[in-house]
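Lecture notes, continued. The same structure-token format from the folding unit now serves as the input rather than the output. Read the line below as a description of shape only.
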């Protein structure tokens, strides 16, 4: 995710504040609505139009190609919509990533160990391939000492 520029952040923040203000004004107009009076209908209609305008403005800003806004994972939005704390989601996500990293590290070490054992066995059984085996071991992150061992116990 690219960093959000301060100008984009400030513009979107101001537009969000405008939307909140328009929603508040609309709430006030709905509570004060008088079925018999014409002026309240016009004011309510004006408030709805103002809200529509500010929502269109923030939509065009968010969809502008030069605006760099952060993307929020849909799972996080769903999590918050269900009334849960986003900090807990973040903590669970970090814990899951840590567990996945530990699992991957274990797999890498297991495959590395298997590579070393296989290289030792291949050099012991096919000494003419020692140079090729050494090349493969080094290119896959192994150490030369594995192939250079004189004795292999099978």
């Amino acid at each position: 995710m690219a960093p959000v520029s301060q100008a984009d952040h400030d513009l979107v923040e101001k537009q969000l504040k405008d939307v909140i203000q328009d929603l508040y004004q609309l709430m006030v107009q709905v509570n004060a609505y008088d079925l018999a009076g014409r002026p309240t209908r016009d004011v309510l209609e004006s408030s709805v139009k103002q809200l529509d305008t500010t929502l269109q403005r923030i939509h065009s800003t968010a969809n502008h190609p030069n605006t760099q806004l952060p993307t929020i994972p849909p799972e996080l939005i769903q999590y918050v919509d269900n009334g849960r704390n986003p900090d807990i989601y973040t903590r669970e996500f970090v814990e899951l990533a840590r567990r996945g990293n530990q699992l991957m590290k274990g797999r890498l070490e297991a495959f590395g160990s298997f590579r070393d054992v296989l290289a030792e066995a291949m050099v012991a059984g096919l000494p003419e391939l020692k140079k090729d085996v050494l090349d493969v071991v080094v290119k896959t992150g192994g150490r030369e000492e594995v192939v250079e061992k004189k004795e292999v116990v099978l």
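Point for the exam: Residues 1-70 form a domain with the Helix Hairpins fold (CATH 1.10.287).
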